[in-house]
Amino acid sequence: MTTMGHSEASFAAGRPQRLVDFEQRFAEERRHKRLWTFVHLVLFAIALAGSVAVSDFNLVGLMNGLPKAWNYIVGTLPKLSLETLGADLSDWYWGLRFWLRLLVETILMGFVGTVLGGLIALLLCFPASRNLVENTGIYFLARRSLEFLRTVPELVFALIFVFAFGLGPFAGVLAIAVHTAGSLGKLFAEVNENVDPRPIEGVRAAGGNWPMLMRLGVVPQALPNYASYLLLRFEINVRGASALGIVGAGGIGQELYVAIRQFEYTDISAIMLLLIATTSIIDITCETIRHRLIGQDMQAGH
Amino acid sequence: MNRTTHGEIARLRRTNPELFSSPLIAQIRTWALWLGFIAALAYGLWWVDANPMRIVNGLNKLGLLVGLMIPPHPGDGFWSYVHAMLETLGMAFLGTVIAAVLAVPLGFLGAKNIMPNWLFHFGLRRIYDGFRGIDGLVWALIFVSAVGLGPFAGVLAIAVGDLMIFAKLFAEAIENVETKQVEGVRAAGGNDTHVMRLGVFPQVLPVMMSHVLYFFESNVRSATILGIVGAGGIGLALSDRMRINNWQEVAFIILMILVTVAVIDNISRSIRARLIDAAPQN
């Protein structure tokens, strides 16, 4: 009876105290959080003001610029009427055969560039995986070179290669390949770092040398992921290849550049729609294949 | 030991042949796929005219260029390059912010749980996807024609190029919202605004912020080249230096881009890591 009375008394006295403590801590946390939010907002505002100042962005410019941009985009659309739809369409797509040829060239550039880049990435990804090389010097070197290949923009490589290899799609393919090697090499290396070490130990125990370890211990596990990344990169590269023509590296970009420079308004929308359709088809196809690859991977129990 | 293993394998091969060979149709399909792949590659190489002579000549010229680039030197334009770099960063930042702000309503429109109409949602998503097919550089070309040379065209190009991708990512983030918290707010008597503010927003914000930061990184990379078509920033300086064959300065500008990109990547990666830690764990 007395113990119970005692605990009741402490309960009655302790609860407000705990509540007060809690409220105090809550208020403190809240103040702390609000302070940090405020600091972040100030930093953000400073960055925004700085960018506005440095990029001569102003509301007057925006107000003048946006209608201009809108008019431009509307101006690129052809006048189609229902009565003469066939004639209008053939007028709009007067260069279809030529454009389709260039579109094929763009896709081929993306494809060859992805394959060549993928091969280089496959060679470089093993020395760039921390779990597969003992020598930190080799690891460091491989990582840095991959970083270099992927950080220099593709277009800069394209400009340099146009100087060295001449105008045309070959320079574009090389630029895509070099950039792809860098970005895929890093992704492949990350896949390699996540493989199960037991098959590698198995091959080592059976007396395999380093290339055998890679071929038999690592590649079979990592292959579906390689393929998935390769397909993803192919999508990106077709899109990138469409821009490379602007610096003279082949593909549909050249034609688009000419159309924009010479104000061939309806040509611009025609080529852009073709590009959107092509990349959408490629995206959807690659996505289906990727899902199937990863599905198989899961069925195999990885 | 070795012999018995081999003998055992031979015996198993005899008794269960189907375990050791894939069905004929699968074999034919694999071979056909490989043949098609190699044929496409060979055709592509032929199309781009990749002959050994050309490669050797080109590599010689490339070696010459690299020789001209060493040592990288800023010439007397160091401060103008710094300014151009700041312009590039400003373009990327402003473009990303504008795209992110405009993408929020588009993201809500494209989310399945906000807009239940299947056809509307599907059509909108296809539009978002379609616009991704246009490279940022093409947008830059168009905006340079529309609003004139300078960084303003670059800002617009980045904003328009990212808008649709953000809309799609935001829509996905909104679709993945945990319904329990939404129901909790509703059960406690919150109205629709409260549900958005307290149930949806806190879950979505860290994801959105993380996407935005990631795109800021990638926009810094792409903003470096927008100048090549006249949209301001360091790319303009770079293509000018190439045109007048000043390769030492070209090399210096490329190094500057590499350093800037690395710094931005590191900052944004650490912020993103913190955001993800702060995000509610599902």
Give an overview of the whole structure:
The complex is a heterodimer of chains A (about 300) and B (about 280). Chain A has about 300 residues and is mainly alpha-helical. Chain A is about 85% helix and about 0% strand. Chain A is built from eleven helices and no strands. In chain A, helix 5 packs across helix 7. Chain A is extended and about 80 Å long. The N and C termini of chain A lie far apart (about 65 Å). Chain B is mainly α. Chain B is built from eleven helices and no strands. Chains A and B meet through helix 1, helix 2, helix 4, helix 5 and helix 6 of A and helix 2, helix 3, helix 4, helix 5 and helix 6 of B.
Topology:
The complex is a heterodimer of chains A (302) and B (282).
Chain A (H helix, E strand, L loop, with lengths): L1 H53 L4 H18 L8 H8 L3 H30 L10 H16 L2 H12 L3 H25 L3 H9 L4 H35 L7 H10 L3 H35 L3
Chain B lengths: L1 H14 L8 H24 L4 H18 L8 H33 L7 H14 L4 H12 L3 H25 L3 H9 L4 H35 L7 H10 L3 H32 L4
Helix pairs in contact in B: 3-11, 4-7, 4-9, 4-10, 5-7, 6-7, 7-9, 8-9, 9-10, 9-11, 10-11
The chain-level mean pLDDT of chain A equals 84
Specify the structural class of chain A: mainly alpha
Shape of chain A: extended
Radius of gyration of chain B: 27 Å
Main sheet record of chain B: none
Number of strands of chain B: 0
Helices of chain B, by number, come to 11
Order of helices and strands of chain A: HHHHHHHHHHH
Estimate the strand proportion of chain A: under 5%
Oligomer kind: heterodimer
The global form of chain B is flat
Instruction: Kindly report how far apart the N and C termini of chain A lie.
Output: 63 Å
Query: What fraction of the residues of chain B are assigned to beta strands by DSSP?
Result: under 5%
What would you report as the Rg of chain A, rounded to the nearest angstrom?
30 Å
Q: Secondary-structure element sequence of chain B?
A: HHHHHHHHHHH
Question: Which chains share the greatest interface?
Answer: A-B, 65 and 64 residues
